[in-house]
Amino acid sequence: MAFTTTTPQNLTTFTTSSHKPKLPFSPSHSLTFPTHPNQTLTSRAISTAISTSTRIHSLFTPRATSSPSSSTTAAETTFHGLCYVVGDNIDTDQIIPAEYLTLVPSKPDEYEKLGTYALIGLPSSYATRFVEPGESKTKYTVVIAGANFGCGSSREHAPVALGASGAAAVVAESYARIFFRNSVATGEVYPLESEGRLCEECRTGDVVTIELKESKLINHTTGKEYALKSIGDAGPVIEAGGIFAYARKTGMIPSH
Amino acid sequence: MASSSSFLAPSSTSILHSKKDVGLSALTSTSSISSQRCQKTGFRRICCSVAAPQQSQRQPSTTGSVKTAMTMTEKILARASEKPYLTPGDNVWVNVDILMTHDVCGPGSIGIFKREFGEDAKVWDREKLVIIPDHYIFTSDERANRNVDILRDFCQEQNIKYFYDIKDLSNFKANPDYKGVCHVALAQEGHCRPGEVLLGTDSHTCTAGAFGQFATGIGNTDAGFVLGTGKLLLKVPPTLRFVMDGEMPSYLLAKDLILQIIGEITMAGATYKAMEFVGTTVESLNMEERMTLCNMVVEAGGKNGVVPADSTTYKYLEDKTSVPYQPVYSDQQARFLSEYRFDVSKLEPLVAKPHSPDNRALARECKDVKIDRVYIGSCTGGKTEDFMAAAKVFLASGKKVKVPTFLVPATQKVWMDLYSIPVPGAGGKTCSQIFEEAGCDTPASPSCGACLGGPKDTYARLNEPQVCVSTTNRNFPGRMGHKEGQIYLASPYTAAASALTGYVTDPREFLQ
């Protein structure tokens, strides 16, 4: 098989920042995007693939677009809006219960439906719902969580549901690995890590701002500021819209 | 693509016996030798039931030979990435030997593959993709049924060799290709082989580590990438070693061992790490029990689980695969993040109480918990050996169950075993006969069933806030359906015992 990669020296992959999230594709090295010998990547096919990818990317950008109280800057480095607070070990069944897994995330209308059901699996002790019954988007920009967020299944529907609902970022004490990896690969939400337990400092409905470049979260309701761990090189991947989009954007995939 | 099977790590040998002996002698060393070794390499030995361990510092290597020592997981990834030596933390492009997907994540992965590689793109290798519908099969949910159709269309278009299709939902036996639960089917169909890399769009893909291979779960996007390229970028995990020695008591099963471990290290105790299971007890386990052990590695956050391949493995594989394989073993000087030691003879049957797999408790301490139903099924507890174990308890009791007891064989083959294999000591009776006499529900169509709830019409789904003892793998709120359902995870022995009393019950009530 004609697979060739020049594996860059410092090529790293995305993990939680306690293991320092790093860039999966290093732009300063040349990496021939692998092709299958039977697949004829004609220039027309590639440009179609890129334009399709771009089109879908614009549907999937992790912005809280519908909420009137939230906004993002053009540079995508600031997220402002309400926060929704959950506890420890929020598993994928709570983020998106199994009965909704018949929805296929790569189909645009089913993608939107997944957003409607984000965090619907939380027990009834969470009196305030993440997405109000009858609504299709969330009014919360940021989910603040405890430890081991996203544990359980490998279902990519979990970060997809959060992104589709309109949330921009999760700020958790720590993540389960598959969820973190899926968040970066899809570019659906920023999986940010807090220094300490923000889930005990913030309450659902607090107005917060995340300054991505400065790695900090400001809670306007309490007036306190919190340091976040740097998203590192996973940031540009998410900003681009995920691993494939990033590879094209940075020229990792040869365009012609 | 360069064949990865011919590559050998420098400090390993490919001769089966000597490597096995080296591996074993390290395991059966006396405790005084072990502690000497501990002091030398600096890793910390932890005995069971003692307080949670701290992570040890890795000593810098001082000699050339120590430098190249690797754990099993490191070796497998080294070979798959065509590198002579790897250490934890390295990020490498890994050649994938098998990619598995099912009806829940397959359509999404296919969608991404086509979007990124083109509508007319072909998968990297039509023989290395195994597509196994298993999650939402026996349901009238139209989308669920459509998802199986999507898989079929793709397999036809790509001429995929291994597609375990189902068309007639009213009678699973009318579908000769249909298998059932993906992780059990992978093993039964010979797709799991020592030394290989197996990725799947399911968190319990780690089950295959029982065969001495690197197996882990990935999302749709990563799977889409593998579909096009046959490779994935993976970070080499450090390894936690779990040494289990002693003769397995007659009332314990592998499920009890893994619940013990998860309770010990907690649900995030193995995050980003490999879990290696060794010791005389592990060696005494059959393949299905080893699968149960590795299956729940993900419940501790683990990246992958491994059990070294041995004669039990080879015997199992004899009639299942003709693809050559090359097992690898941890070097004697390999460094582990931590080592945990368990004297299995001191362990007791366990449950994981609601709502977390690490909420460990002794089964006998939960004897006042009244239950509403019992569920025996899933990749964790629905294999032939699991049903044989349950049958053993029913046989020993001779009585009928006091609560509805649902039996969901993982695959067609398991279902057939229930009706054909005589249970030892039962005078020729099969599992199915014993279950019928005990008043259990008739074994259902093989699939993932209610382990993860599923569409509302799924057999044995928890649609009310009931208490269920289950041989499955997770008990988070809503896992089997109803958010207020209370799920006690348990071994098949404990599940059967509980069915007989109507309360959470230690199987020693019947087995001793």
From TrEMBL, chain A:
Q: Which InterPro entries match?
A: Aconitase/3IPM_dehydase_swvl, AconitaseA/IPMdHydase_ssu_swvl, IPMI_Swivel, LeuD, LeuD_type2/HacB/DmdB
State the organism named in the record.
Arachis hypogaea
* Lineage per the UniProt record: Eukaryota, Viridiplantae, Streptophyta, Embryophyta, Tracheophyta
Protein EC: 4.2.1.33
Alphabetized PANTHER family for the sequence: 3-ISOPROPYLMALATE DEHYDRATASE SMALL SUBUNIT 1, 3-ISOPROPYLMALATE DEHYDRATASE SMALL SUBUNIT 2-RELATED-RELATED
> What protein is this chain from?
3-isopropylmalate dehydratase
Q: Which reaction does it catalyse?
A: (2R,3S)-3-isopropylmalate = (2S)-2-isopropylmalate
Q: Which Gene3D superfamilies match?
A: Aconitase, domain 4
Q: What does the annotation say about its assembly with partners?
A: Heterodimer of the large LEUC/IIL1 subunit and the small LEUD (SSU1, SSU2 or SSU3) subunits.
Q: Name one GO cellular component term.
A: chloroplast stroma
